[in-house]
Design a protein that fits this description.
The chain is mostly helical. It contains 22 helices and four strands.
Length: 571
């Protein structure tokens, strides 16, 4: 008998719209404005000396954790507001999702020099460096949380949506009782991944060189970077050990309790055999202070419900036409449009100074980096999907491997990369292999954590049903596991590919032991332009990279995202 497969029809939609063009023009104007401010930055900037004494490590660890916490708090707020607006408002989604594509595709390591020099021209040096470090860590944390929250809201089962409509939930009540709980598991696992991604870029955030400008901040990242540059193996191991200790403490006191608490939000008809547990959560649940705090939160929750209850209707002031825009709105729009046009014109003028060989180098480099990104993504999928499913569906295995995965993911590969490079340089094509290896180390965790979250969210009753039906392992993967984790694979792949493009800048151009090692790639071109202060080449490389990633997202990933929303919804 012939099998028939359902495939949703995609409405025709151009891969690149006018809105995308406007967004890119605005981005070009912003980049040019940053470059102009960079010209006014102090000619020489020197940061503080980084001590490699073991006694400095506790203070450095506290500073780094503080920066990470501030960036994560901002990332979480951004993700909740942005993801909710994109998922709940179809009109806003047409603008917000392309903007998110642009934001997550911008290689922050190429944008960081412009941000640093621009802020140092406006603010005091130390404040500008601190703010730039938080911005860089924010960009390494925010996008995968936003994509996860958006994916969770858009895949809520239809019967739950209908139930919230029947009970006439307000927007706040629907968010609090349905949307946030449904996305809790994915948010927690992606938050863990965001912290791992933040550790990965911590070295670049806390110590950065742009020509004669030396920006550095005391912290674990600058400690590891300085130790690696000096070839001080003892200091590298000491810094890595403190980093591992911090990750383990975060796992025991934050992430494991959150996962145990969020297990109650799983949608399933029967309870799993081994529920996740946390000794720290058990202690807190018996605490009088936590009970007191929870009662105060209940009062705040009641106040929020009363405040939001009457704010669903759109109010129109008598005598005011809802379709007429105020004059100040038109004036601001006109000023912004003129500014964008001027910025784009000046950006084009700046890039026009590049020679033909520079454009050829950018084109060839783009193809070479694309091949490395594709290779790292395929290798990551080959091992993260089976391992992630094993961890997500086996609670005992998860309790053993979860802390280990967090520790390994949190170790900045950029600290160990120079030593790996010394070994691989003796092999034919060693630098290309090393570049793919560093991209892999920076991207595979996005996939792994998303697959774990997707596998953990599969209802236990569906697993029991496959056991009762006696399905083979292949049929179980085909009918349950792959459909169940498919939205999470797409989310992880999008953020992983973005991470690979970012990692290309540090993977294709490496300075170690007073020598510079580079291979063909757009990341190497951007990194060299940063070192030499070639702002025209830096601007051109960044824009080409952004446009390429947007086209890949539109032509490939967006279709898979819509397939996940329409065909693989859990209902």
């Amino acid at each position: 008998m012939k099998r028939f497969y359902y495939k949703p029809a995609f409405p025709p939609k151009p891969a690149f719209t006018i809105g995308d063009g406007m967004i890119l023009l605005g981005l070009a104007a912003i980049l040019y404005g940053g470059v102009r401010l960079a010209f006014d930055a102090p000619s020489v900037v020197s940061g503080p000396e980084i001590s490699l004494s073991p006694g400095a490590l506790p203070w450095y660890a506290l500073l780094s954790v503080g920066r990470m916490a501030i960036a994560y708090f901002l990332s979480l707020l951004f993700s909740l507001f942005y993801g909710y607006a994109a998922a709940r408002n179809p009109a806003a989604r047409k603008i917000l999702m392309p903007v998110l594509d642009v934001l997550q595709s911008v290689p922050i390591l190429s944008f960081l020099p412009v941000v640093l020099l621009s802020l140092s021209a406006i603010f005091p040096e130390h404040f500008a460096t601190e703010l730039s470090a938080i911005v860089l860590i924010f960009t390494s944390q925010a996008w995968n949380i936003t994509f996860s929250f958006y994916q969770s809201i858009t895949t809520i089962p239809t019967e739950l949506r209908e139930a919230s409509a029947i009970f006439r939930f307000s927007a706040w009540l629907r968010f609090k009782e349905l949307e946030l709980p449904f996305s809790a598991i994915g948010l927690i696992w992606n938050s863990m991944m965001s912290w791992s991604g933040g550790w990965f870029f911590l070295m670049a955030a806390e110590i950065f060189h742009v020509g004669s400008h030396d920006f550095r901040l005391p912290g674990l990242g600058s400690y590891l970077k300085t130790a690696a540059d000096q070839g001080n193996l003892i200091a590298v191991l000491a810094g890595t050990g403190v980093l591992i200790l911090v990750v383990v403490l975060l796992d025991q006191f934050i992430w494991r309790p959150l996962l145990a608490w969020a297990d109650k939000f799983k949608i399933e008809m029967v309870e799993g055999d081994d529920a996740p547990s946390s000794w720290f959560l058990d202690i807190l649940s018996r605490s009088w202070l936590m009970d007191f705090f929870q009662r105060r939160m209940d009062l705040l929750n009641e106040w929020l419900e009363l405040s939001f209850q009457g704010n669903n209707a759109v109010r129109i002031t008598p005598g005011e036409s809802p379709g007429k825009r105020p004059a100040w709105h038109i004036a601001l729009t006109t000023i912004a449009l003129i500014t964008v046009i001027y910025g784009c014109f000046m950006a084009i003028s700046l890039m026009a100074t590049l020679a033909l060989k520079d454009w050829v180098e950018l084109g060839v480099g783009l193809l070479a980096t694309l091949a490395r990104v594709f290779a790292s993504l395929v290798i990551a999928m080959l091992w993260t999907i089976p391992v992630g499913v094993a961890i997500g569906t086996n609670r005992r295995l998860a309790s053993l491997l979860q802390p280990l995965v967090q520790v390994v993911a949190a170790i900045p590969a950029t600290a160990l990369f120079p030593m790996l490079l010394l070994v691989l340089l003796r092999v034919y094509g060693g630098l290309n292999i090393a570049a793919v290896a560093l991209m892999l180390m920076g991207t595979q965790w996005y996939l792994l954590f998303n697959v774990i979250a997707g596998a953990a969210a599969i209802p236990q009753d569906l697993r029991f049903t496959t056991d009762l039906l006696g399905l083979s392992a292949l049929d179980r993967w085909r009918t349950l596991i792959i459909p169940g984790i498919f939205p999470y694979i797409i989310t992880g792949s999008i953020t992983a590919s973005g991470g690979a493009w970012n990692a290309s800048i540090v993977a294709e151009y490496v300075e170690f032991g007073g020598k510079t090692y580079a291979t063909t790639g757009i990341g190497a071109t951007i990194a060299r332009a940063t070192d030499t202060g070639n702002y025209a080449l830096l601007l051109a490389g960044t824009l080409i990279l952004v446009i390429s990633v947007i086209l890949i997202n539109r032509l490939f990933w967006q279709r898979l995202y819509r397939l996940a929303e329409e065909r693989y919804r859990m209902e």
